[in-house]
Amino acid sequence: MTAVIEVRELTRTFGPRVALDRLTLDVEAGEVLALLGPNGAGKTTTVRLLNGILQPDSGEARVLGRDPATDGDELRRHTGVLTENAGLDDRLTARENLEFTARIRGWSRPKARDRVDELLEQFGMAAHADQQTQGFSTGERKRVALARSLIHDPQVLFLDEPTASLDPAATKSVEDLIRAVAARGIKVVMATHDLGEARRLAGEIVLMHRGRIIETNDAAAFFTTPKTPEAARFVAGELLV
After folding, report:
1. With contact defined as beta carbons under 8 Å apart, do 240 and 193 qualify?
2. Which residues, other chains included, contact 98 with Cβ-Cβ below 8 Å and sequence gap of 6+?
């Protein structure tokens, strides 16, 4: 099977801190992949590098055959990203937030409106379409942001802590939407520190710590028979040092 993402010796520092240390990884099409690890593991840096938002210090990556470092604009035509804070413009309505994204991609107004209406309906936000997002709950904001990340029907969707700060009901709602997205054949790469979220959603786990990969494993095996002592400790709820 052809890899959707190929990473070789990818390294990124911020001053004296090594955020990503010679990361090497192949990601194939199919199930949800969880980049799992504690805060500071390098998960968000990985997502940003793979989308061309950050430049690596060394190493290389290919996403859908494209180099994010040199072809980021073209790559982002085929990928979607949901950041932890959603990043909506609170002055705009849900509809306006989505239509703005479609319009800056060069879509005509009628095409943008049709796609936005479709997504707002799919994500259960049609009744709130013309309300300012400033008044939305965190769960509602996540729904709108997730819809926005899918407006151009991407082949790969990157999620950064998708259910952070959500209550249990909102968490279940967003996770159900993520499953539905993956079922459509979109490769989902999810950065999370939440063991429960990874267990519920992921088919494959990449455990990261201090910018390095500790273990890559099928999700079922990762939680029942981890291959490394570090992974076993993390599954048991112990801190990685």
Report:
1. no
2. 112, 115, 116, 119, 120, 144, 147, 148, 151
CA 69/CA 73 separation, integer angstroms: 10
Domain extent at residue 138: 85-153
Express each pLDDT in 97-121 by its tens digit: 999 999 988 899 999 999 999 999 9
Are residues 164 and 234 part of one domain? yes
Give the containing element (helix H, strand E) for 199. Answer: helix 195-201
| Together in a domain, 187 and 233 | yes
Q: Is the pTM of this model over 0.90?
A: yes
CB 103 within 8 A of CB 150: no
Residue of 200, 203, 133 lying closest to 173 (CA atoms)? 200
Q: How far apart are CA 112 and CA 148, in angstroms?
A: 11
Question: Strand, helix or coil at 55?
Answer: coil
- Supply the CATH number for residue 188's domain: 3.40.50.300
Same domain, 169 and 182: yes
List the 17-28 sheet strands across, edge first.
Answer: 17-28, 3-14, 58-63
pLDDT band at 83 (very low <50, low <70, confident <90, very high): confident
Q: Both 219 and 158 in a single domain? A: yes
What is the 8-class DSSP label of residue 57? S
Q: Are 24 and 8 in contact (CB under 8 A)?
A: yes
Query: Which of 103, 124, 153 corresponds to the end of one domain?
Result: 153
| C-alpha–C-alpha distance, residues 11 and 5, integer Å | 16
Domain limit, last residue, from 105, 128, 153: 153
